[in-house]
Design brief:
Strand content: 15-25%
Number of helices: 3
Number of strands: 4
Structural class: alpha+beta
Helix content: 10-25%
CATH class: Alpha Beta
CATH superfamily: Glutaredoxin
Bound molecules: FE2/S2 (inorganic) cluster
Strand order of the largest sheet: 2-1-3-4
Distance between the termini: 45 Å
Largest sheet: 4 strands, mixed
């Protein structure tokens, strides 16, 4: 039995907007409020919506590098997005299978993850 297919990819895009001058910065600013809409439309235009699911996300703590999108599977974090970059990510990564390395977050901002178990220990949970 075939069943309903899983999505091949999820694209989590931070949608947090903070006021101008807020120290933490934010991915969404007045000039790019339509970027998630653009991502969705681009997936539709490329006929991959459904097997690729765009997801509006909360802050992923890379606020000064935004707009950001994380592609799963693969845990690939793209930063400094523009509409042109989104088109290239869809063409080359999502459809072509090749990560667009020049848009990937620098390693210094994307170090190894802390496991939930480690995090609990660091928080003093026994
Ligand atoms: S506001 Fe987007 S990562 Fe924090």
């Amino acid at each position: 039995m075939a069943g309903i297919p899983q999505p091949a990819f999820y694209m989590f895009m931070c949608q947090v907007e903070r006021p101008e001058g807020f120290p933490k910065g934010s991915c969404i600013k007045p000039h790019n409020r339509d970027i998630f809409q653009y991502l969705s439309e681009s997936l539709m235009k490329n006929s991959v919506m459904g097997t690729v699911v765009p997801v509006q996300s909360a802050c992923m703590n890379r606020c000064n590098l935004g707009p950001v999108v994380m592609v799963e599977p693969g845990h690939t974090m793209y930063v400094g997005l523009t509409k042109e970059k989104i088109d290239r990510i869809i063409a080359e990564h999502i459809i072509g299978g090749n990560i667009v390395e020049e848009y990937v977050i620098q390693k210094e901002f994307w170090a190894e993850a802390i496991s939930p178990e480690q995090m609990r220990k660091m928080s003093g949970v026994r």
